[in-house]
Amino acid sequence: MDTTLVNALREQLQRETGQPVALVETHISWVLLTRTQAFKLKKPVSLPFLDFGSVEARKHFCEEELRLNRRFAPSLYIDVAPVCGTRESPRIGGAGTVIDHVVRMLRFPDSSLLRNLLVEDRLQPALLDGFAQRLAALHVAAEQATPVSGFGSPDSIVRAATDVLAALRAQGDDSRLATLAALDTWIREQGQVLRMAWIARQQGGSIRECHGDLHTANVVLVDGALMPFDCIEFDPALRWIDVMSDLAFLTVDLKAHGRDDLAFRFLDAWMQHSGDYPGLQVWRFYEVYRALVRAMATGLGPRPPDGEARPDYLACATRLTTQPEEGARLMITHGLSGSGKSSVALQLLCAAGAVRVRSDVERKRLYGLDPLARSVALGLDIYSAQATRQTFERLRACARDALLAGYPVIVDAAFLRGAERRSFEALAAEFRVPFTILDCRATPATLRRRVAERDAAGTDASEAGLAVLERQFEWQDPLEADERALAIEVSTEDTVDIALVAARWRAATASR
User: Could you tell me the pTM of the whole model?
Assistant: First the structure.
């Protein structure tokens, strides 16, 4: 490919700044990096999924890139600037003949990319929680596609996946042909299994104008928060997608990097703010598809420097097509307010690859409240007997969706009433999956201290204060003998051995 223009631009920027200018190349663009800014020049290429062949097309897609990415990263994207002059002597801006365009951005250090934070083990997991919350809000605010648009139709979803497989076969690595054939069979089978689920999501408003390329190299830490950038601008069909497909790109990249724990933590935080438990039915398919997309993209791009390892996305896709041996199972938590149920459940879902449903969150969702909203301040009584019945109906519905999708499920609630516990034991029996009770305990003094501190901080979804705790001491229904036989008892006075708890949960699954 002729690199005259980009090399001349690089030299011009070096003369203007008096400093070296780095060049980063992908399969569809060049990015010139000064000390403070980045200039993205689209390659004049025509590929099966895009056409940047003309100056007019590149200008259009530069403008689209600016418009679309300002939804996610308004502080990073500055403008679209013309490239004037000649290919041998170009300049950015000014008068003269316009020969191309660049997207101008603020530069950030490569060390701030989520990919590098992950590889170098510098990622604080709490950053993913905040990002998941913001991503869920962006998905809610994004424009919905109408069913007649064709976006998100079952046929288009399967075709997109098989097209990627065809592109991978065309890369000419014969050693992968058997693997690709097996994946092709799985994708076509799932296309039949998931057809009605996809139609329901298309008609239910789950197809929205998303990011479309949400892997770890397209998320950056800016001012203490993770921010997505570089979304898909060149093909509407690649960004008008199921929100679950958008989410799956990031979770599968975390899994490909060996961090299933962070993938399930990110899913958990996103679910708390989206409530999209029906989407779990299609999540695995989208993760497989997204892993194949990453395998294709890494094959198209420049070869990595010697010694630099890349995740094996094809192996990741294959692993995801195989159901885990333990499969679906159901756990409920049990314990008084402040007993550490939510803290242990969060650690356990990361260790076991499970889906959590939180009563404190779902109770508020029934009233249209965010997880951290305070119902008392709004004059709402969300703890009435009727509200509690509705909350447990919601918990059962969410747990049912997750079990149908084949995932282990943790229902995070106090479960102090025997009837509530029996209801979920019956749900497990309906699905013929193991039922386990995570029985969390702490001393009364510890419970009172934790509840008071949590109430003062206001950073947790629970609104159970000291008055609620004191009432719980009086009316809880202790576990009966047969329930104790199903229980894993943990004291949260000291550090809980999560690996041991996860192993005991899996052992219960294997024995039933």
Answer: 0.93
Scan for tokens 């508020």, then name that residue: 364
Q: Where in the chain is the domain with CATH 3.90.1200.10?
A: 114-320
Residue 384's φ and ψ, nearest 5 degrees, are -70, 165
Element (H, E) at 390: helix 385-404
DSSP β-ladder status, 355-358 and 225-228: unpaired
Q: What is the three-state SS of 296-315?
A: HHHHHCCCCCCCCCCCCHHH
Pairwise CA distance, residues 121 & 153, whole Å: 39
Task: Please give the pLDDT value at position 326.
Answer: 64
- Identify which has the larger pLDDT, 172 or 34: 34
Q: Where in the chain are all domains bearing CATH 3.40.50.300? A: 329-510
Q: Over range 381-399, report the average pLDDT.
A: 92
pLDDT value at residue 445 = 95
- CA distance linking residue 124 with residue 121, whole number of Å: 9
- Cβ atoms of 496 and 344 within 8 Å: the answer is yes
pLDDT for 298 beyond 90: no
CATH of 329-510, one of 3.40.190.10, 3.40.50.300, 3.40.50.2300, 3.30.450.20: 3.40.50.300
Residue 375: pLDDT over 90: no
Residues 206-217 have a mean pLDDT of 97
Q: Which DSSP category does 113 fall into?
A: B
pLDDT of residue 225: 96
Helix (H) or strand (E) holding 229: none
SS (H, E, C) 30-93: EEEECCCEEEEEECCCEECCEECCCHHHHHHHHHHHHHHHCCCCCCCEEEEEEEEECCCCEEEC
Q: What CATH number was assigned to the domain covering residues 114-320? A: 3.90.1200.10
